Amino acid sequence: MSEIAIRAESLSKSYRIDHESGARYRTLRESLASLVSNRLRRTNRTSHETIWALKDVSFEVNRGEALGIIGRNGAGKSTLLKILTRVTAPTAGKAQIYGRLSSLLEVGTGFHPELTGRENIFLNGAILGMSRRDIRRRFDEIVEFAETERFLDTPVKRYSSGMYTRLAFSVAAHLETDILVVDEVLAVGDAEFQQKCLGKMEDVAGRGRTVIFVSHSMAAINQLCTTAILLDAGKVSAYGATSDVVGQYVAGRNPDASVQLYLRDLPNGTGGAVFEWAELRDSQGRLRQDFSIGDDIAVTFGIRLAAHLPRTTLAVDIRASDGQPIAHCLDDDSRFNIGNEVSERTVSVTFDDVRLYPGSYTISLRAVNVANTELFDLAEDCLTFRIIDGGKLTMRWLPRFTGLVLLTPNWQLSNESRPSVRSAEGTTRGVIAAASMRGSLNEVPHRTARPREH
Amino acid sequence: MTNGGTRESPTGGRPLPKIVIEPQTAAAQWLELWRFRDLFRTLAERDIRLRYRQTALGIVWVILQPLVASLIFAVIFGQFAKLPSDGVPYVLFVFSALLPWNLFSGGVQRAGNSLVANAGLVTKIYFPRSIIPIASVSAALLDFVIAGSVMAGLLIFFGIHVTWAVLSMPVLVALAVALTIGVSLFISALNVYYRDFSYALPFILQIWMYATPVVYASSLVPEGWKIIYGLNPMVGVIDGFRWALLGGMFPATTLVESIVVTSILFVVGTAVFSRVERSFADVI
Which residues of A touch B5 (CB under 8 A)? Predict the structure, then answer.
C-alpha cells in the first residue's frame, strides 16, 4: 500500500489587482491620501479586481512518486509551488505534507557574492533547510561534487559562472529531505549541467523520495514523472498519467500567428528585457501559420529593453509539438547584437528554406544576459506554426517517424568501381584543433562581479 | 522543513513529521522560530561576517565608532556647553549611554531594511520571517559586547569602583534587546509595505536620541516632565546603565516605565509582524 506524501485540498490563491495605481507597493502618503479622499467622497475610486491565480486545486502525491506540473505561463504553476513550499499562504483550502520538504526554486538562492565558497555552502545549506550537522557531515561530498576545492576560501564573486552554478547545484543536490520541489532549474546552465541535474533528480526519485517537478520541457517531464497535473488559468484541467496529460497540453496549445505578449500577467524572468509581441510571416510579409516544406519563415518580435544592460543575448528556440528541441538559434551565431540602448525594438529573424517534416512546431523567445546566468524574459511556445504536406520540394508522404528534416542531398553516379581513398590529413588536423580548444576552456576564477545576490 | 533535529530515511519506519498549510497560532510561531535556529545562526553569522569584509580596520571600527563619538560629544557638550555629567568624567558618562543606544539604534537600523534587502530569500524559501530582523539585531548585539569591553577598559582607566549594581547588567541588556526586537519587527514589517520607513528611520532615530539622555543627564529634565519623559523606554534603559556602571540613584520610576512600555512595544511589534508576514512574499 502506498503512503500519501502530499494531499492538497481545493487550494486557492487570489491576488488583488489595483487598477488605479497599478503599483504593488505604495507610499504611506498615498495610502493616507486615498484613505482621506475615499472617506470624503464616500466612494471607492480605485477599482479592484480579484484574480484567482489558483482555484480549487486538489491532488494527492504518494511517497516515492514524481509529480510533474505543466501549463502555460501564468497558469498558476509557480503559485502552487509557492504555497506548497510555504513561501506564500493560500487564500483558501489546505494542504497536508508528510515529511520534510525542500525546494530548489532557483539554484544559488541565498548565495552571497562577498562570502567564500565555504561560507556559502553553510549559508545556502541552512537556507535550503539542512542542519549545520548535516552540512558538516556532507561538506566534503559537496565540495567534491562541485569540483571547487581549490577556491573554497575565495569569495564567490570571483568565481566563473560555471563554478558558481556547480557549487550551488551541489549543495542543493545533497539535501536529504523526503520531498523535493524543483522549479525550472533546467532553464539555466548548459546542456551538460541540465542533464546532470535531471539525472540527479531521477536518482532522488528512485530512492523513494517524492519529487514535485515544474518544467516547460515536456521531454524532461516525460523522463522523470509518472503522474502530471496540467494547470490552466489556475485550475486543474488534466490530472493523471504523464503521457496523457502531456498529450492534452500539447493538443490544447492554442495556435496563433500573432500574439500580444505584453498581456501576459506574470513576467517570466527578471524583466531586464521584455518581449512585447511576436508574429509569424511568410516571404511576402503576410501573417501566416501554415507553411509548406521549403518556405521561408520570418519570426518578428517586439522587445523592450528596460534597463541599461551590458549585453543581452537573444535566442529563438524551435521545438516539435512533442517537446523535442529542434533548433536553438542564438543571435551570436549570426553576428547579431541588439545593443544596449534603452528602447523598444523590433527584431526580425528569418529562417530561409525551412525543410522540417509536416507537423506542428512551436517557437520560444528567450532573452538572457551574456553569461546565461540571468533570464530576462522567456516567451515559451508563444508561436506555433505548421508544416503541411506538399509543396514545391516534394509531394510524397513524410510521416514523422521516418524523419524530421527533409534533406535534398546531391546524388551522384560514378563509373569507377571504387573511389580512390583520400588522404586523411584534413581530418586529423581537425581533431587536433578540437583537442586544443577543449584545453583552453579550463575555468579559472575571474574578477567580474557576480550579477546578483539572492 | 518542519523538524530541524530529525531525519528519517524515506523508507524508514518512523512516522514522518506532518505539516498542515493553514493559518497559524502565535505559540506555534515561536516554536517554529526555535526549529529554524540553525538558519537563524547562519544568517546572524553572515550579517556579522559581511560587516567589515574588505575593510582595512575590520573589527576596530566597532570600537572606534562609539569611542570617537564619545570624544566628540565630550568636547562639544562637556567642554564647550559645560553640561553637567553627574560628577563622572564626561567621556565615561557619554560612553555608558552610547553603549545601549548604539545597540538599539544599530539594531533597528539594520533590521529595518533587512527584509527588503533579503527579498530574494523571502520570495523563494519558507522560514519564519522574523528570523531576518532578529538576526540583524543579534549582529548589533555583538557590537555591543565588543564595545562593552572597551567600557570595562575605560572604567579601569578612570579608576571607577563598580558596585554590586553591575550584576544587574544582564537584566538591563535583556530589556534593551527586547525593546530593539519589538521596534525592529514593527519597522521591518512596515518597511515591506511602505518604503518610506527606509528614509524616515535615520531621522526618527536622530530625534529619538535627543529625546534620550545620551549626551545629557536625565536629571536636567524638569521634575514635572519626568513621568512623560520616562515613557521613552530608552530613558529607563540608559538611566539603568549609568546606575549599574557609574553609581548614583536607582532610577526606579523610569525603569518601571521602560519595562511596561517595552512589553507593550514587544507584544505589538510581534503581533503586527505575524499579521502581515504571510503576505510578505506577495508584496515585497
Answer: 131
